[in-house]
Amino acid sequence: MPGLQVFEGSETKTRASAIYLDIRRAILDGSLVPGTKLNVRDLSTRFETGLSPVRESLNRLAMEGLAIHEDNRGFIVSPVSEPELQDLTQARCWMNELGVRRSIELGDEAWEEAVLLSCHRLSRTPRDPVDGAPGPNVEWERTHKAFHQTLVSACGSNWLIETCSQLYDSADRYRSLARLAGVSRHDPRDEHSEILTAALDRDANKAARLLTEHFQRTAKLVQSVIRTSEG
Q: Is the pTM of this model over 0.70?
């Protein structure tokens, strides 16, 4: 049986995707801080690849708003600001409110089980790294996003689900900056369980309200970090 033929274009695209994911992860977890210059040649050397895959990955990041291209400066990691955080939080509240309302209306027993399971996994996952390693617990980050995405997964709109995912990632970048500044949330209330209960009770108004309050509390915490850094 003949081996698979790999075209150069496919290799370039695969390489660009790998570079994109690597840089994107570093931006979201705060390893690459806002304003950091993303030099195409330096990144090409680092990833041992040509310039084209690097440019493609940076253009993709720019389309997501995680990087920007400035004339005569090239690419940099997108800056953060209090107005953008407020705008981002408002958009996130609107989209997730709509998503959870529609999911409560349309979701079946399979959706209920998925939400229950995702919240259970989140509650069993330590927020901090168990081995004392620096940075966030990657598994907690994954299960946290999975819970919020599962809440809106029965809304009937793939566009809305994907929008909620992108808004989550953008907000997560701000949360990572707060964590790196030594500020994090450790509330005695189990807000995720409260949201879960409201969703399973099919109380759309309460679920939407709790979800919005959940996002706004985190944004308020991050806002204090941004004000301190700007001051």
A: yes
